[in-house]
Amino acid sequence: MIKRDKARAKARERAKELVGKMTVEERASQLRYDAPAIERLGIPAYNWWGEALHGVARAGVATSFPQAVGMAASFDPELIHKAGDVAATEGRAKYNAFSAQSDRDIYKGLTFWSPNVNIFRDPRWGRGQETYGEDPYLTARLGVAYVEGLQGEDEEMLKSAACAKHFAVHSGPEALRHEFNATASKKDMAETYLPAFKACVQEADVEAVMGAYNRTNGEPCCGSHTLIQEILRKEWGFQGHFVSDCWAIKDFHENHMVTHTMEESAALALKNGCDINCGVTYLHLLQALKDGLVTEEEITEAAVRAFTARYLLGLFDGSDYDQIPYEKVECEEHLALAEQMTREAVVLLKNDGVLPLQISSGQTIGVIGPNANSREALVGNYHGTSSRYITVLEGIQDKVGHNGRVLYSEGSHLFKDRVENLALANDRIAEAVAVARHSDVVVLCLGLNETLEGEQGDTGNSYAAGDKPDLGLPKCQMDLMEAVLAVGKPVIVCLMTGSAMDLSLAQEKAAAVLQLWYPGARGGKAVADLLFGDASPSGKLPVTFYRSVQELPPFEDYSMKGRTYRYMEGEALYPFGYGLTYGDVRVERAVIASRDADTGAALVRATVKNTGSAATGDVVQIYVKDLKSPFAVPNHSLCAFARVFLAAGEEKELEIAVSGDAFLVVNEEGEHVKGSGKYRLYVGTGQPDPRTAALSGKSCVEISVDEE
Fold first, then answer.
1. Residue 661 is part of which domain span?
2. H or E stretch covering 604
3. Which pLDDT score is estimated for 463?
4. Would residue 334 count as lying in a domain?
């Protein structure tokens, strides 16, 4: 962890000095996301709103990584750290070039409102694609890695400023977010909803935290005394700046009805520690000051925190980062990292032996589906622009070249019942069937894109405000899948979504199933590499794939009961942590090599061997179960993991650290307390559940831990 305490103290002193030269009107003006210039003090305009969820977004050309949930499937903190560094490097390169031309527009600063470390507790949530999945431990580890990548290794200077969002207890429904009160128990808060934020603050020293639109336990998140003052600043020691979600503060009086006027809403946010307003409500701060609703000291403190961040970024004195050239944008090294991330992100869910495909001169491959040649399905939401896109179809065409034939059919519209408006329903199915009949094997690319799942207001499915009504594919795609499967050729279903879908039909009848997520602008190349065996799939699901929403609690219910692998009561279609490879990696032995008497931390020594014939990456996962505590989660929890690469027949011995926190439980008061003393650790390449064992043919090695 890079601690910048000395640098922060110095930056804060300089910020206090600069802010002290401002009038109160000028100080208040700097709390807007689009802070204007103060020419008399030599302060240029600055726009705080920047995006870098999976590469720099909305600011022109940038390297495009897979969507965040896809990066999570890599279970690779080291690679995610590098992705954050790429975003920071390209963000700096662009900032240097743009500011030299006095272009200080939105999305062109160095404060990136990423990562999204909310918990993806319900697969219907459209913005779940922006997260690192459903598990608080995985989310924390990957969130910390991305924050540290964005903020850099310099103890004196931030490369860019990361922002953990949306604080807190936020994961839909999108349609209700401006008025919704998320009710969560103290146990669920401490056990599930807050750990990733705490890790970003205390382990990664994240510079910013963004509030959520909703209320949490009655308080609007962007003006919550409990969340911002008591937990974030007092309990966790957060020293950075706090920013509202966009236009969230006006919801205080327009939708949450906890205030009556703009001035009251601005005052509630400011007094509780919200420094930067994404929106326009802080335009009313001066009137709030006149009305006695806020003090000049409160305005001053928010401005000091804002300018502390700007000094830490070197925006007044310059830094070595000013030398990063524009040529770093989409450079070869960055594109190679994005390609590696895609290879690690794809999850192989089923394979009857059809994969990997072989290239032969007499072979015909049919590529079918609305996402096969779709650029939109590559990028997810909050994306940048790529100078080149490689779809799955194009990746396969490039791979096959003149050594075979590739036939293509769109097959169906993404969601409408016909492609051509004047045609009859299912107007592309006959073509798809013809392609399937004339092919030796079919790659069927189905799914969604950001127009069907995403953020309220940004998506085309206004009836669901960005959320999914259920887990089913659009009817036109189901009709297409049924028709193609009925031809009888081997079908490889490739799903391009940012969330779990019901893949029961594909699991039953397809020869292979792959979850591609939104694989990045040039993701089609890496997908083709995986399909043809130039690399082995090695991703693991960061979310549970349920069979239907009927087994889930109501969307509005924020209790964890019945949700995610830790609390679910039924059997998953595809479990969290599951994913196949072309090899056969097994944990053959596992023991506790050492245990720290003070912290309870354990070092697990595991022997893993690839008994298969193909080299592959894999993820060794360790789950813990408290066998007796009434406060333990009903199932088990991920507590450690490690990526490993093994050649065919290779054996390795790994040492994996398990934190002492893994042996604590959370009581009903939200306190982390000592567990029962009787635990079981499970070490394997997936969860220790019957469904994973049935799908993978592998079981975990069990280790009993008895502290009595």
1. 585-706
2. strand 602-610
3. 64
4. no
Assigned domain for 113 exists: yes
CA distances from 606 to 132, 619, 702 (A): 26, 12, 11
Structure tokens at 270: 């400011």
Peptide bond into 690 cis (omega under 30): no
Residues 615 and 536 in one domain: no
Report yes or no: 642 and 654 within 8 Å, Cβ to Cβ.
yes
Residues 197, 173: Cα–Cα separation, whole Å: 21
- Same domain for 537 and 686: no
- DSSP symbol at 424: P
pTM attached to this predicted model = 0.98
How many whole angstroms separate alpha carbon 624 and alpha carbon 687? 10
Q: What's the N-to-C CA distance of the chain in angstroms?
A: 34
In this structure, the answer to whether residues 245 and 353 fall within a common structural domain is: no
Pairing of strands 405-409, 364-368: parallel
**Burial (Cβ within 10 Å: 0-12, 13-18, ≥19) of residue 375:** middle
State yes or no: is 251 an active-site residue.
Answer: no
Catalytic residue among 135, 245, 502, 584: 245
Final residue belonging to a domain, choices 328, 359, 394: 328
- Poorest-pLDDT segment among 47-51, 490-494, 543-547, 596-600: 596-600
Q: Give residue 354's pLDDT.
A: 97
Burial pattern 561-570, b for ≥16 Cβ within 10 A else e, equals eebbbbbbee
657-695 pLDDT tens trace: 999 999 999 999 999 999 999 999 999 999 999 999 999
Which residue among the candidates 453, 529, 618, 689 is catalytic per the annotation? 453
Residue 632, both tokens: 């333990």
Tens digits of residue pLDDT in 588-632: 999 999 999 899 999 999 999 999 999 999 999 999 999 999 999
Q: Residue 240: pLDDT above 90?
A: yes
Contact 497, 450 (CB under 8 A): no
Judge whether 164 and 193 are in contact, CB under 8 Å. Answer: no
Residue of 120, 203, 213 whose CA lies nearest to 175: 213
CATH number at residue 678: 2.60.40.10
Residue 120 near residue 133 (C-beta atoms within 8 A): yes
Question: Known catalytic residue: 85?
Answer: no
| H or E element in which residue 646 lies | strand 637-646
Using CA atoms in the order 635, 640, 645, 648, what is the torsion angle rounded to 10 degrees? -40
Query: Is the model's pLDDT at 459 over the cut of 80?
Result: no
Residues in the chain: 708
